[in-house]
Amino acid sequence: MEINSPVSGLLGQKGSDVWSIAPETMVFDAIKMMSEKNVGALPVMRGDQVLGMFSERDYTRKIVLKGRSSKETSIGEVMSSPPLTVSPNDSIDRCMRLMTQNRVRHLPVVQDGRLIGIVSIGDLVNWIISVQTAAIAQLEQYIHGGYSS
After folding, report:
1. Are 19 and 33 in contact (CB under 8 A)?
2. If pLDDT is split at 50, 70 and 90, which confidence band does 110 have?
3. In the chain, how many domains are there?
4. pLDDT (mean) for 19-45
5. 119 is a domain residue
6. 116 vs 15: CA distance, rounded Å
7. For 35-62, how does the pLDDT look when each residue is reduced to its tens digit (9 = 90+)?
8. What's the domain range around 46?
9. Is residue 2 part of a domain?
10. CA-to-CA distance for 43 and 120, rounded, in angstroms?
11. Which residue in 61, 68, 63, 45 sits closest to 115, CA to CA?
């Protein structure tokens, strides 16, 4: 487990359950689904194609602050598009850089044109904490003479 490990390792631990919505879905229904599933963003899909992402940030900035109605506005009108995606072979480090540079908190993981998972900033932080915890444990073991090369 390393920061240069591929995203596929993280998905293997996390699982690859993904809930998605269609662009025709009303924002209210998307927010309701996000609440029920306890997620901060949903990929917007048409068939197997990821058209964009809809996040809590999109809701606050494009609906609430603009005085729009969530029951009368479709996701397609306010989603973030085109989506920023990664492949399962991309590194955890690359994902962190993309999220930081683009100020996003969720990245769809796409392989051969198909969505296979989503990684969030929380997933990446948890991974990095695990990497650091393992490194500290190895160093402590080495200092105490229990580490063999």
Report:
1. yes
2. very high
3. 1
4. 97
5. yes
6. 10
7. 999 999 999 999 989 999 999 999 999 9
8. 7-143
9. no
10. 12
11. 45
Strands 41-46, 49-55: parallel, antiparallel or unpaired by DSSP? Answer: antiparallel
pLDDT at 82: 93
Q: Is residue 1 part of a domain?
A: no
Does residue 131 fall inside a structural domain? yes
Euclidean distance between CA atoms 46 and 67, whole angstroms: 27
The span from the CA of 65 to the CA of 47, in Å, is 31
With H, G, I as helix, E, B as strand and everything else as coil, classify residue 95. helix
Nearest to 11 by CA among 129, 108, 84, 82: 108
Query: HEC profile for 34-71?
Result: HHHHCCCEEEEEECCEEEEEEEHHHHHHHHHCCCCCCC
Asked if 43 and 115 touch (Cβ cutoff 8 Å), the reply is yes
Residue 145, both tokens: 């003479």
Cis-peptide into 23, omega within 30 deg: no
In angstroms, what CA-CA distances link 121 with 2, 36, 49, 93?
16, 20, 23, 11
Longest alpha-carbon distance in the chain? 66
Three-class DSSP category at 116: strand
Q: What is the CATH number of the domain that holds 17?
A: 3.10.580.10
